[in-house]
Amino acid sequence: MVIENTLKEALEIELKVAKSVWIASAMISKSGWNFIQKNIPRPTIQHYLIGIDLATEPSVFENIISNLEVNAKIYENAFTFHPKVYIVQKEDNSLTAFVGSSNTTSWGLEKNIEMNFRINDQRECKRLLNWFNKLYKNGYLITNEFVADYKEKFVKASYRRKEIEKDSSEISINLTKDKKQFFKKNQHEIFKKKYHRENSQNLKDIRKSVKDSFLLLHKEIYPQFQKYGLTDLHCHHQSREIVSRHFFNPFSGNYINAMWLHYGKSFAQLQRYSTKEEKSFINNIRIQVIIHEDSIGIWLVLGKDWGSVKDRAFFRQQMTDPKIQKKFFDAFKLLGNDYWINIPKAPPINDIKSPIELASLTNKENIKEYFIIGRDINWLDTSLSNQLIAKTILEEFKKLYPLYEIMRHK
Length: 410
Known about the structure:
CATH topology of the largest domain: BirA Bifunctional Protein, domain 2
Number of strands: 14
CATH architecture of the largest domain: 2-Layer Sandwich
Number of domains: 2
Structural class: alpha+beta
Radius of gyration: 27 Å
Helix content: 25-40%
Largest sheet: 8 strands, mixed
Number of helices: 14
Order of helices and strands: EHEHEHEEEHEHEHHHEEHHEEHHEHEH
Distance between the termini: 72 Å
Strand content: 15-25%
């Protein structure tokens, strides 16, 4: 290990031959950001983990969100994020690292009295890279909303001869409030419209984490279906399809605006149909848990005209029977006003007064659109915490199941 008193010159030499870089810094100034961008060749894979405790300049975050190919997150918890670590990988895959006191600012890189160690030992460099990746998984995506909030509270101190400073009480970013939620902030953020057609490595990794979370949830709730009376509700017969796809698929337009965990007809039940479309699990009636940018939905869903013709026809025929109308109405009213039905101009559930009125509403469903009875729960609701989410879903499924049984073609 060699002590580098002035990091800029040594780091510049390594950056000019970089294949990939990983930088964890308590703060990055505009000048520090420009120094990195000026000296790395194109294309170089960039990874950043940035603190907000020492007032990183907002323009740095703006540069990052304008380029989705830059892999960057902020790190924030109850304590100060204070590392200064630079890892550079060259074309031969060898690693060089610098660890010390220099933030990514002009003062930190060349002006202040700083102390940094240069590390060439490959085993030690890989240990540093593992450290970075472990923290990176718990970082937060940098979004326009974050930058807007950050800029409002950002206080610039003197720039004469000092690094950027801030009054920590002035910048309050509420990122840790999701710590007890089953689905984390990033796992919701990626379903914002701006990310629907984007496929950076950050987004790929987070979409995969959503699938993994859904599978964990499935393992917890599925064994309890019988206990909750969900006696004829089944997961997808192919294990890879238990959760909707997390990767881009050209056949569906390279587009992901949501992901879901779904339950419906068994494989044997689907084989009774004659066409491939009718046999498809996703084209038939389902109960599902779906994640969006700010909510978790619990929905009962009838598919569209390419596979759900029999479910739709069966449901319409069912709703001509006064006894079934009454049974459906009673179960529907038990859902409560948190639920909605996606029929144009449908009133709140509590305002629907009779079985005939409800039957008339359901008769307006359009087979060219999904037919949904569902509720959406704000992602920060305590019912979606690690401890409560399984119970919440099972109890909501139990309320939807009588409707599922009436609507499902048998």
